[in-house]
Amino acid sequence: MSLIRVALDVPVERLFDYRCDDPAARIGARVMVPFGRRRLIGIIVARPEHSDVPPAGLKHALRVLDEQPLLGKADLKLLGFAADYYVHPLGSAIMATVPAALRQVRSREQNPAGYALTPAGAAIDALALPPRARAQQGLLSLLRGSPVIPHAVIAAESAAIRKALKTFIAQGWVRAATPVAPVQPDSHRAAAGPALNGEQAAAVDAIVSSLGHYQPLLLLGITGSGKTEVYLHAIAAALARNTQALLLVPEIALTPQLQSLVVTRFPGTTVATLHSGLADGERAAHWEAARSGKARIILGTRLAVFAPLPAPGLIIVDEEHDSSFKQGEGFRYSARDLAVVRARQAGVPVVLGSATPALETYRNAIDGRYRLLRLSQRIHALPPQIDCIDLQQDHPADGLSGRLIAAIRTRIECGEQSMVFINRRGYAPVLVCGSCGWTSDCRRCSAKLVLHLRERRLRCHHCGHDGAVPVACPDCGNADLAPVGQGTQRIEAALAQHFPKARILRIDRDTTRRRDAWPDMRDRIREGAVDILVGTQILAKGHDFPQLNLVGIVNADSMLYSSDFRAPERLYALLTQVAGRAGRSNIRGQVLVQTRFPGHPLYAALRNQDFDAFARELLAERRQAGFPPYMHQAVLRAESRSVDLALQFLENAARLARGISPSVSVYDPIPAGMMRKAGRERAHLLLQSPSRRELRAFLGAWHPQLAKATSSAARWALDVDPAEL
Ligand code: ADP
Ligand code: ZN
Ligand code: ZN
User: Fold this and answer.
1) Distance 584 CA to ligand 1 centre (A)
2) Of 15, 23, 299, 570, which residue is the least packed, with the fewest Cβ within 10 Å?
């Protein structure tokens, strides 16, 4: 009796054993199995010799769905590492990365691509078939004529033949199979791009000379220094060696322009794109193209780090500091970190690119573990001039200082564009009653409801609550409710007051929700049909607007003081990206940062555009305070109806944790920074160790105890290397 061990997408933290005698049951292939009263599709992860389940309890797998394993050994190895490192059940980790279309049992069974004889079918004696069953005879000779008969051929046959096929399948004589199509070899011709400058050429050389072995490289290049061009050249070299290149980009950066840039530069090459915006079928098709090796370039967001690759040759992570590489729910992995692991496992180089790398990455580079490549010149223009506007001196009535207004006026007079950046959408972040102090709080979150004046709604940006604006204070009846603070809508309105004739365009999640909204807006900006852009983070990354020469940053301070120790690092990265939008053509760009703390070291570093100085100072602070990257963290998050229940669960978990390892510090459980979210109350427990290995060993010992101690009152999750607390 043969056994298979199967990963299934069920909320039980284990793998499941089945009997299966099908020789196609190879590790990495999909299999359909009975599960309770359902049928599920899983992935075979092992062929064990024996099972802990008594033989009588072992069910038979229904059928194997893939001839060629869907996941190769190396792909499974990465998943195995990830499941172990992030302390996540292997079955759930695997199933989270396989496209939905490949793991769903259709209620109306889909036709397989083709059919082939099983060994039992091949052994049938044609004479043993019932003499009058002519259709069965015909089918048998059809199947014997070719290794795989495409479904289309069978579908064109008579009803009797199709009926015979059903009989053969039921007998176990025929199985589903994929016809082998002759693959046209791609021509890996790369269209010529611009001639590289010296620094770019040196970076490309360094990457190319690393092809064929593991080598992490940090490409530290200021905004507009031409990092993308370096990637494209390195990809061309990987393709020339007949390997695949995986390019990971942040969610917000995977634009149609980037896709078409890659496609036009590699005209004969199949490019697979993988991101969450794809329809299920599309995603499965692109995934399959990666798996079969047909796609030589795989361009995707974080989940693409798991794309099955038969011939990986180069991995690139663009904007490697971006927080979207960390999955915040469920299987909480870091795609950036796994890209490095994958490169090591595969023996290939990995390039991490950024103007403002994560301190973890930067430290690896200055300590010599990663090779550091620099691009220090802007391709088309000088770096922008960055200045602070002191809000203590220049009081804005409506969020816009006099100096910023004057600068925008000058740009309009010169026919140039300006951009006003604010990291908050809506009109005002809160509505307040002047007589009793009532504020628009979300009932389900520890957060304020944001006023969206145009739509006359109060919305929670955390749980999605969406209600009408009250006509009077719900507490005291006062009709005079005042919006406090600024959001994109309010800044837009204020700009319209100052510049009644200017063409103002607001760009935030509210105005770009429609699918083609953003491309339209981009064209208008490029054509010069816009004088002032008002927008959020959406505007920060990767767009070249040649006429945009002034960037005003309205409320940077709101991100300066935060309980999160990573806040300054993030703010610096964001401001650098926003500032990088200014002056991408021949006029020197200007950036004005409104702040009440112009002397703050962060703004000083930003003015000098000296990332190294800033990073070294932050690293010194982190070392002293015992924070990452000098410490390794894990956090146990719990949520419940009440914060007390969540804390109680964590107290218990902390008791189990203490005493497991002397080199892991177990802190006291505390309520989360945003305690209530969508009606659930949250708390967490921080664990820290100077040794990653010790922390992993600790988690390995602690996790099974946690799983046993689980109470129904609290839901919990472990987050290894948390991006935020
Ligand atoms: P980054 O990603 O480093 O901010 P980009 O890759 O967007 O910079 O490059 C900025 C611009 O410079 C792009 O329009 C790109 O096409 C162009 N570019 C890059 N390298 C060169 C080069 N060697 N010569 C001319 N233009 C270049
Ligand atoms: Zn009131
Ligand atoms: Zn809410």
Assistant:
1) 10
2) 23
Q: Which residue owns the Cα nearest ligand 1 atom 20?
A: 226
Task: Give the span between the Cα atoms of 247 and 273, in whole angstroms.
Answer: 10
How confident is the model at residue 184, as a pLDDT? Answer: 44
DSSP designation for 609:
T
Residue 633 pairs with which residues in a beta bridge?
A: 688
Q: Which ligand 1 atom sits closest to the C-alpha of 580? A: 4
Length reported for the chain: 725
Q: Is the pLDDT of residue 132 over 80?
A: no
Angstrom CA distances, 561 to 201, 522, 558, 569, 684, stand at 40, 33, 7, 12, 21
Q: Nearest residue CA, atom 19 of ligand 1?
A: 226
Spatial distance between the Cα atoms of 713 and 615, rounded to a whole number of angstroms: 43
Ligand 1, atom nearest to 379 Cα: 12
d(CA 9, CA 18): 15
* Beta-sheet strand order (sheet of 548-553): 385-390, 590-595, 548-553, 417-421, 532-535, 504-507
Pick the residue with more confidence: 109 or 130? 130
- State the SS3 of 29-51: CEEEEEECCEEEEEEEEECCCCC
- Nearest-CA residue for ligand 1 atom 18 is 226
Considering only CA atoms, which of 419, 492, 420, 421 is closest in space to residue 452? 492
Q: Write down the H helix ranges in 24-89.
A: 73-85
- Ligand closest to the CA atom of residue 479: 2
Sequence-ordered alpha helix ranges (H) in 611-691:
611-625, 643-657
Query: 329: which residues sit within 8 A by CB, 6+ positions away?
Result: none
- Residue nearest to ligand 1 atom 24, measured at CA: 194
Sheet containing 149-150: which strands, arranged edge to edge?
A: 149-150, 114-117, 174-177
Assess contact for 71 and 28: CB atoms under 8 A: yes
Q: Separation of 514 CA from ligand 1 center, angstroms? A: 29
374 membership: H or E segment, kind and range: strand 371-375
- Angle of helix 73-85 relative to helix 90-97, nearest 10 degrees, comes to 120
Tokens representing 290? 């990666």
Ligand 1 pocket residues where CB is under 6 Å: 194-197, 200, 221, 223-229, 379-380, 544
Tokens of 693: 């290995």
Would you call 269 helix, strand, or coil by DSSP?
A: coil
For residue 473, the CA-to-ligand 2 centroid distance in Å is 5
Per-residue pLDDT tens for 442-492? 999 999 999 999 999 999 999 999 999 999 999 999 999 999 999 999 999
Is the CB of residue 226 less than 8 Å from the CB of residue 379?
A: yes
Q: Using one digit for the tens of pLDDT, what is the confidence trace for 561-600?
A: 887 899 999 999 999 999 988 887 778 899 999 999 999 9
Give buried/exposed letters for 500-529 (b at 16+ CB in 10 A, else e): eebebbbbbebbbeeeeebeebbeebeeee
Instruction: Answer whether 340's CB lies under 8 Å from 376's CB.
Output: no
Per DSSP bridges, beta strands 215-221 and 349-354 are parallel
Give the closest ligand to the alpha carbon of residue 434.
2
How far apart are alpha carbons 401 and 132 in whole angstroms?
93
pLDDT at position 646 over 90: yes
Q: 159: burial class by Cβ within 10 Å (0-12, 13-18, 19+)? A: exposed
